[in-house]
Every structure is written in structure tokens, then in C-alpha cells.
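Re: the 108-residue chain
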Amino acid sequence: MEGPEERDGVGRVDGLDGAGGLGRRSGRQSALACAGCALSAVGATAASLVWASSSRTRRHMGGGFEGEGTDYTVLVTELPLVAAAGAAAPALLGLLIGVLLNRRRRRS
């Protein structure tokens, strides 16, 4: 009873263990997944720091006398979007590099 999954050379369905659950990842896959998570965390942190140091953010958060003119809604509206974009940027860059390398390999 074989579904759309591919069988590996040992006869197991790739990605599933004998009990029908998720199988273990290889060491390389785990390292790549860990590196991807780390890159996303670094991207989100870097994007948030760049956003926090921008003149536009300082204008909203700079405040005047006793906090007059401070607009805290930017923390709720802009910061989550900036962090999400920073986290997604490494994945999109990796995808773009992978597509370009795959095209180059097909031409060769």
C-alpha cells in the first residue's frame, strides 16, 4: 500500500517510521533546519534594530515634553510586520539562490 510518498533505498517510506509517525531527520537535515531557524531569528532581530534606529521611528517614538506627541501604535502596527519580514527575508533569499543554482545546473 504505497501512496504518493517515495521509497528510499532501504524500502521505507521516506519521512515515515514504522509506526506511521514522523521519522527522524538525518544529521544534515537537522543542521540545515537549525541554521534556517537561526538565520530567521537573526533576520528578525536585525530588521527590528534597523527599524528602531530609523528617523521615521524616532519621530513617532521620540516624544516631546512629558511624552506628548509619542505614538505607541507603531509598536503594534509596524513592529510585528518588520519582524515578520526580517524573518522571511533569509528564507526568500535562500529560495532565490536555490532556483538560480538549479537553473545553472540544468543548462550545464
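The CA atoms of residues 86 and 96 lie 16 Å apart.
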